[in-house]
Backbone:
């Protein structure tokens, strides 16, 4: 199982999702590799912080760039789940990950500057499906404002994603401080504090994405 988390816009929460989903899978007994394919090294730096806290469950993290297809296929022989954190740009690493991934997740904030990338992302996914027709494609809306007045913006963003052939998850993430707080500690929202709502967000994303029980 290889999940590529991709997008053309920085700040949409790719690394946050990659890290939290990796911890969730590891806590459920999977052999997990978190592969950082972003030159900014957000997940690598997070993993280094994590290593300093022996109370946290261990998690294997590597970094690689460029054509990572052969690396992913090799690592797939040793890990049950590989989660690839790809930079916020169309890149060789993104294209390579899509060529061999089983799943792809594309996060979008419900903001015009994020949603403007939809046409090109749809084109990229269309090209990937030509060579990897079994690729499971989903989008997810992230960092939603919790105010009730913002519900329409969330629903509109989901509709736009669907219109471009990138079916959105029902689950989404809300803009919560706990995501940043956990990241700084090298942990996940599943391990940091007791924000049950944030935990449920990650569990629901995983459940929909991999069609498993939350």
Residues:
């Amino acid at each position: 199982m290889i999940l590529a988390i991709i997008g053309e816009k920085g700040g949409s929460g790719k690394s946050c999702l990659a890290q939290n989903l990796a911890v969730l899978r590891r806590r459920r007994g999977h052999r997990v590799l978190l592969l950082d394919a972003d030159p900014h090294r957000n997940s690598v730096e997070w993993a280094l912080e994590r290593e300093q806290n022996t109370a946290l469950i261990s998690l294997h993290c590597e970094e690689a760039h460029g054509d990572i297809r052969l690396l992913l296929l090799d690592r797939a022989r040793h890990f049950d789940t590989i989660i690839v954190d790809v930079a916020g740009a169309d890149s060789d690493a993104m294209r390579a990950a899509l060529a061999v991934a089983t799943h792809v997740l594309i996060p979008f904030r419900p903001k015009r500057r994020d949603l403007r990338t939809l046409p090109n992302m749809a084109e990229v996914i269309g090209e990937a499906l030509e060579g990897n027709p079994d690729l499971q494609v989903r989008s997810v809306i992230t960092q939603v404002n919790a105010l009730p007045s913002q519900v329409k913006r969330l629903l509109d963003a989901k509709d736009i994603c669907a219109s471009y052939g990138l079916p959105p998850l029902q689950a989404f993430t809300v803009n919560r401080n706990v995501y940043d707080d956990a990241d700084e500690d090298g942990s996940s929202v599943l391990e940091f504090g007791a924000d049950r709502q944030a935990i449920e967000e990650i569990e629901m994303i995983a459940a929909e994405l991999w069609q498993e029980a939350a």
Notes: Residues 2-209 form a domain with the Rossmann fold fold (CATH 3.40.50.300).
